[in-house]
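Board notes (copied after class):
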Amino acid sequence: MTGLSTVLIVVGLFLLGGVYSFAKQGLPKGVVVLLAIGAGMALTAGVLRLDVWS
């Protein structure tokens, strides 16, 4: 597990919390979807950079 993968996973989880918060506040769906896509991309990149696949 590298430092970059850890940072990407933490950022993805942080953005996921923002998705939940924004959806609960009733912000426009476009903003929530865009944030969810960013969270998914960060989490996916962090998981794919883990060294457990070798």
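Comment from the instructor: The two ends are 12 Å apart (CA to CA). Helices lie at 3-25, 29-48.
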